[in-house]
Amino acid sequence: MLTLVLIGLLGGLITAVSPCILPVLPVVFLAGGTGGAPQRAGSTGRSAADTVAAGSVLLEAPPGAPPRARASRNRRPYAVVTGLVLSFSFFTLLGVTIISALGLPEDILRHTGLALLVLIGLGLVFPPVERLLERPFSRLPQRQVNKEGSALVLGLGLGVLYVPCAGPVLAAITVAGARGEINADIVALTVSFAVGTAIPLLVFALAGRRVAERVAAFRTRARGLRITAGLLMIALAFALAFDVTTALQRALPDYTAAAQRKVEDNDTARQELSGLYDNSNKALSRCEDGADELRSCGQAPPLEGIDSWLNTPGDRPVNLKDLRGKVVLVDFWTYSCINCQRATPHLRDWDRAYRNAGLRIIGVHSPEFAFEKKRGNVADGTRKLGVTWPVALDNGLTTWNNYRNRFWPAKYLIDADGTVRYFKFGEGQYDQTETMIRDLLRQADPTVDLPDPTGRAVDDLTENRTPETYLSTQRINGYTGTPLVSDKPTTYRFPDRPLPLNRVSLDGTWTAGYEHFTAGRDARLALTYRAKNANLVLAGTGKVTVLVNGTPTRTLTVSDAPALYRLTDEKKARTAHLELRLSEGLRAYALTFG
């Protein structure tokens, strides 16, 4: 556990200085800086209220109150950061469970945090509001704790607005919280990560307090600075609410990415993080992706938490134990993933060539999007791709977690004794994977007569190919143009200058959501890409006009359920400007490239 805590702490420290933290920094600085240096009442000829305001912004002396001998030390920085750590840790782990149990909207935590931020800002402007926020803390015996109560409330609110960059550590915490799989290791990782992020934030808040104590303006114009800080805090709340701050984050390079990979994605970290849920499968984390020889990677985890099955007699489940004596290939995939679609022909070839020799393929369909959880959609996708082997609908990602998987597609080879001997993440190395299949079939039956290798030509994966781009307010990469507004019809405009490579932009009316973008009036989408072909997952009813380098090339008819549509198709990779004009109401999910 000590290693896990160290990984969480270092990961948190790096995250706290990344571009993702920028939106909360002004609030933290203001929270630490709105208290000034302690002074004796009456020493400057000011009123008692002004003197108290200079020493602490939380409570002003009511009219007629006797002057205090000395204003208390401003401990707001500690209160704010403590509240942030407590709130972030608690709601990251238990927020999904609590919200689901109470039947509350998924975004209620964010709205609550924004409301608290506005209330704190109003409290700085209007002392009666601040006294109202202090009231819940009035029964606490420590006077100073009482007085810093609104700072603690501010920290609690920031904790649910706090969205650090999602590296492997935060991903492990988030998945555990979403699935309700909380144990001592997860709690230790969460707390250490939160503490790691809190240390730089505390330094920043203390710097704000230091400025307040040393700069004369904070002592002589305390009331005016309180009002200014309150208004800025309210403005920041609205900026966070409408995602205005994301434009600044996108403009800055991810200068902490290399350090984050070094800390969170090294061999030790991968082994520790992959062992958080089920120690019985820990051996999987010791094997290497795409190794050039068969290895022993531990007993194959069971296929658990499956919602339903396709392509089996009577849709009955498949048990791995019943397949002992056979070589099993477990393929993690999802039907709208272009990478998975490119891998499917190889699986079809292997199924045809080696089924009679003892190979069994099982597809574990682990969805990326909500629409991929619907059995009818998966059945249609399976039929269109020519998948005839059993498919398990792993909608809760239980089997995905059992195998410590993080990739689409991913292939795990299991020998006749039920041991995982090889796995390959992503595309490529098909010849090597087929060689491993043949070796395992010979080990299972030395007398087996194998056909010649299938030898399917492997498509050029294209150096510098444009990466998959999710049309999601949380997962989009390479976006430029009018700042995105979540879940609200908004008019967007293309930038005046040409789009750089791998950049996407919107024009016309769009409603940008967490899972997809919905086209409104005169909706257009543009991007500059490098690949042989471009594809888009679409749903709804309507048409899409495709323009390449300004010339219309095709019109697509979209009908009903989400499916992958080919936008362009060339024999060789090229760089091109793509523009799409979509009918109102169409839903766009993800752009993929081949």
Could you characterize what this model shows?
The structure is a single chain. The protein has 594 residues and is α+β, with helices and mostly antiparallel strands. Helix content is 41%, strand content 19%. It contains 19 helices and 13 strands. It has helices spanning 2-15, 25-33, 48-55, 76-102, 108-125, 127-134, 143-147, 149-161, 168-179, 184-214, 216-220, 222-241, 245-251, 257-264, 267-274, 338-354, 375-385, 398-402, 430-444; strands at 309-310, 327-333, 359-365, 391-393, 410-414, 420-425, 469-470, 490-492, 504-512, 517-519, 524-548, 551-582, 587-593. Strands 7, 8, 9, 10, 11, 12 and 13 form a seven-stranded antiparallel sheet that branches. It has a six-stranded mixed sheet with strand order 1-4-3-2-5-6. It is globular, with a radius of gyration of 28 Å. The two termini are 42 Å apart. 41% of the residues are buried. Residues 35-71, 142-146 and 458-462 have low confidence and may be disordered.
Radius of gyration, whole Å: 28 Å
Shape descriptor:
globular
What's the count of strands? Answer: 13
* Biggest beta-sheet profile: 7 strands, antiparallel
Structural class: alpha+beta
Give structural attributes.
alpha+beta, 594 residues, 6-stranded mixed β-sheet, 19 helices
Q: Strands, helices and their partners?
A:
Blueprint: H1 2-15, H2 25-33, H3 48-55, H4 76-102, H5 108-125, H6 127-134, H7 143-147, H8 149-161, H9 168-179, H10 184-214, H11 216-220, H12 222-241, H13 245-251, H14 257-264, H15 267-274, E1 309-310, E2 327-333, H16 338-354, E3 359-365, H17 375-385, E4 391-393, H18 398-402, E5 410-414, E6 420-425, H19 430-444, E7 469-470, E8 490-492, E9 504-512, E10 517-519, E11 524-548, E12 551-582, E13 587-593
Parallel strand pairs: 2-3, 3-4
Antiparallel strand pairs: 1-4, 2-5, 5-6, 7-13, 8-9, 9-10, 9-11, 10-13, 11-12, 11-13
